[in-house]
Amino acid sequence: MRFIVRMALREIRASWQRLVFFFVCIAIGVAAIVALRSVIQSVRVALSGEARALLSADLVISGNDPFNRTVRETIAREARAGRVTAESEAKELPTMVRPADPAIVASRIVELRAVQSSFPMYGTLRLQGGHTYSHDFLRGHGALVRPELLAQFGLGVGDRIIIGTQRFQVRGVIESEPGRRLGAFSVGPRVLIDYADLESTDLLTFGSRVNHQLLLKVPDAALAALTMDLRQAFANEFVFVRSYRRNEDRMSQDFERAENYLSLVGLVVVILGGIGVSSVARVFVQQKIRSIAVLKCVGGTSHQILAVYLVQVLLLGLAGSLLGVVLAALVVAAVPSFVPNSVNMLQIDYGLTRTAVAQGLLVGLLVSLLFSLVPLLEVRHVKPSLLLRQDIPPAQRVDWVKWAATALVAGALVAVAAWQAGSLRVGLMLSGGFVCTAVLLYVAGLVLVRAVQPLRYARSFALRQAVLHVARPGNQTRVILLAVGLGAFFIIGVRALQANLLKDFAIQLGENSPDMFLMDVQPDQRQALSAFIDDHNGPNGPPRMIPVLRARVVGVRGRDVSLDRYEDVRGRGSLSREYTITYRPALEANEQVIAGQWWDSSTSGGAEVSIEESLRDHFQIQVGDQMRFDVLGRTITATVTSVRRVEWRDFRAGGFMFVFRPGTFDNAPHTFVSTLQAPLDPAARARLQGALVRAFPNVSVIDLRELLDTIRRVLNNVTLGVTVVGALVLLSGALILVGAVSMTKFRRVYEAAILKTLGASTRLIATMLLLEYGVLGAIAGTIGSAGAMVLSWAVATYALDMPWTSAPLLSVMGIVLTALFVAAVGVAASLDVLRHKPLATLRAE
Amino acid sequence: MIELRGVSKTVMSGGRPLTILHPLDLSIPSGQFLAVVGPSGSGKSTLLGLVAGLDSPTTGTILIDGTDITTLGEDQLARLRGEKIGFVFQFFHLVPSLTAFENISIPMEIAGRRDAAPRARRLLDEVGLADRGHHYPSQLSGGEQQRVALARALANDPVIVLADEPTGNLDSTTGRHIMDLLLGIQRARRSTLLLVTHDADLAALADVRLALRDGRPVGPRAVPVATSVEGSVSSGVEGPAR
């Protein structure tokens, strides 16, 4: 054993410079795994301790309608029984807010929350400036707001804002708020007011989208049973019961899943490093053949020598993994300064976690070992007799040990991937995906390398030599193509997709289409609003008014499905949610009937409804089925008379899952959604929006252009994220390239010496190198580009269901930039080849 | 004692079998110096490789101290070499990534000897390279490299030393030094020495000479077999010219 360790250390001393690049690849992957896992685990630890604070209660009952008698009586009964020890009510709704100062032309949709004095039951509401929250901040028309709202309005603490029809004074700035879910979607910044003041805003008009919440404090021992009992008791009520424990469990699951999936990014990079390790191990054994023969000649057994090289790989793998942990520590230490204040509402202690470090180290070591095992097995076949004779024919026998080792390694890699993903299926998919990608890139590389072969007859000597070198055996072309091609594929792919998405959205928001939605327009405001827009919106035409109501499906009696009670509908998941419905005589431009028949203009006796095709597909609701709806407490039974396909991307006309035949809701109270084309000039838009909110305080304005900006921002962030992954992969590719160059440098130095002796100038040799790596980069870029186009096409066509346009400029840029990148890295790594004096090289040989 | 019984070697060359060593019987008693001479391709190195267990014969058996090495596996052969055989090559074959000192230490470390370091230093001293132990092969001259190789061959006190044209890649003065060193050590340790050489002068120093041509022993008995030679010798084996 002493010999093995000593020999391994001596070998590292001699060859670490040539091997270091591959283990930097491992380091990057390990760093990604450790950093991602550590950050997510830190957040998870911080959040799991705050699950109750996040809900700001033990149990929350919520619904979109005011709580009915059943709910209230049940809770009162439970309070008497001692299972509910305290309760607090809150209401939440999206609404418009504007500064009270008419000189400031601005308005903004916000998430308004009205709370009672017992809020928050758990957790702390932190205010800027170190103030301690008390309900006194809100009493008597006080408001607490998020800093971004003040920034937008240019207001400060003490200034006044108008919510609905009521003035409120800003009394503090919210830093963090319990009950606000981290990263949850919100339509706007939070504004907190007193529950008692909500009525005075006149926002609780008919149709406003209020979420009613009942926050309960429950003894720990009773929580599980009470949650179950209340769910059962309210099975047929339109309310949801959530306990903080369930939140905690779900959060825990979500985080675990996020952690596992994100760390796969690191695993992909580690595996690329592993491919580099495998390729270097193969070249390494070839170069060490004579030394291995010598060791065998002086008494070393195959097992001892194999052990020497495995220990060497393990030591280097360990060094790479430790380097990865150091890199991860640096990244994690830098996280707090990158996380925006709005996200970092919780006190999170970012730091490396023990499990993340252990996993990273283990993955780094395993991948190094697994990927080097098969090539190192060649050590067994080195015959010591080659020290006497060079012409020993290789053994033709099937090497079962090697095949068994290959199978073992493949199995182990699937296991590592499954372990990292926390799912065997994902592990298998990732491994399978990797194998398929590798095979595809390999075949593509083979085809392209062949395709450039005619250039070996080119007139330029440098180009001829470059093409010959790309195809020469042992040139690591395949590995470089795999790594660089994959990196290019990621980067170009996500950019192509982004370009397609943005283009599609931009088309939707053309010059002449509606780009502003007005929500919650009351029936008595229709005329006034139309007239107002006519006055204020110049020549852009009158707004469209779409009647809307909110409804729940409470039963289905049909051919394939029968749901008698709301409780049964609840069992069907999303079918039980509240839907926004409408009625109209004709189809919209973005709709087509695919089953049944659209109604004619005559009025009929019974209610008729047209459903969107996904309802048929997911819930097996068919034409002819009877559906029961609860609309404002009234149950309406309607016959499904048609199934529609909706072009959802064309959101100008809106999209509705349920459209009713006119007549059913003629006398029912409902609100209107209006669409209009606002001026393109941002200042004019802001003026119109401000004027609208002043005149109609209850109407919420949703600006599609602002939404598009948000989408663009989100897309940019996603693109940036994927680009970082692609850049990591590309960096691995560059490192593998540098490593491959340094592994085969001795051969190049020798060739360059011969060429120089035969009259080649340094410039000619530099040109040869430049062209060789340029050709290699162009091939890798072509592979990545072609793959990216296929990916963006597949995602656009099948996942996003939108038209795909090729991005030829992006492809060409991708190929050119990859070629330049590889050429630059390759030549920079080969500068030694140019510097060596020919005589010294030839003498050494 | 080395015994070869009907040992031959046939390889495939251009798809056809080619016998590079025809059946040969040979006994080399312990402590004897046998020189194997012959032109290139005559089977000299093949014979040496077979005796060292670096290659296996097509026919016949090879006994080293009574053990039939043709029945041993690769790893058993490696252990046997580590224990009983020292090898000196024409092209030195030092491990380039190790220093002179480390090259000498390897056989002892493989054998698990605890005195590897002091003994390697002694051997370096013995071959006159006491102050060059930390040098890598590329930093040594050919003669120095061969001296390191010689020290390495003697590291485990082998009873058999096999030398494949050890002076073939050196100038004559350095070659002579190496040979003096090799023979001095062989005599001092009473080890068996098999020397493959082109050099008639070197061969003349041997107790016994075996001439090979086209894989067969050849030549008249120019010199009578030395009295120290025991056992049978096949035709073509000559006694010492001393």
H and E order of chain B: EEEHEEHEHHHEHEHEEE
Total beta strands of chain B: 11
Radius of gyration of chain B: 18 Å
Can you tell me the residue ranges of chain B where pLDDT is under 50 for at least 5 consecutive residues? 221-236
* Low-pLDDT segments of chain A: none
Globular, elongated, flat, extended or rod-shaped: what is the shape of chain A?
Answer: elongated
Task: Give a topology summary.
The complex is a heterodimer of chains A (845) and B (242).
Chain A lengths: L1 H47 L2 H5 L3 E5 L5 H12 L5 E14 L8 E8 L10 E2 L14 E4 L1 H7 L6 E4 L2 E11 L13 E5 H4 L12 E7 L2 H14 L5 E5 H54 L4 H37 L15 H23 L23 H22 L2 H28 L9 H11 L5 H32 L7 E6 L4 H11 L7 E14 L4 E2 L2 H5 L7 E6 L7 E6 L10 E6 H7 L6 E6 L2 E13 L11 E3 L10 E6 L5 H14 L4 E4 H40 L1 H13 L4 H38 L8 H22 L1 H5 L2 H7 L1
Parallel strand pairs in A: 3-8, 5-7, 14-19, 16-18
Antiparallel strand pairs in A: 1-9, 1-10, 2-3, 2-6, 2-9, 4-7, 5-8, 6-7, 11-20, 11-21, 12-13, 12-14, 12-17, 12-20, 15-18, 16-19, 17-18
Chain B lengths: L1 E12 L2 E13 L4 E5 L6 H8 L7 E6 L2 E2 L5 H11 E4 L11 H11 L5 H11 L15 H12 L6 E5 L7 H18 L2 E6 L2 H5 L3 E6 L2 E2 L19 E2 L4
Parallel strand pairs in B: 3-8, 3-9, 6-7, 7-8
Antiparallel strand pairs in B: 1-2, 1-4, 4-5, 9-10, 9-11
Describe this protein's structure:
The complex is a heterodimer of chains A (845) and B (242). Helices cover 54% and strands 16% of the residues of chain A. Chain A is built from 23 helices and 21 strands. In chain A, helix 9 (354-376) runs antiparallel to helix 10 (400-421). Chain A is elongated. The mean pLDDT of chain A is 82. Chain B has helices at residues 44-51, 74-84, 100-110, 116-126, 142-153, 172-189, 200-204; strands spanning 2-13, 16-28, 33-37, 59-64, 67-68, 85-88, 160-164, 192-197, 208-213, 216-217, 237-238. In chain B, helix 3 (100-110) packs across helix 4 and helix 3 (100-110) packs parallel to helix 5 (142-153). Chain B is globular and about 50 Å long. Residues 221-236 of chain B have low confidence and may be disordered. At the A-B interface, helix 1, helix 7 and helix 8 of A face helix 1, helix 2 and helix 3 of B.
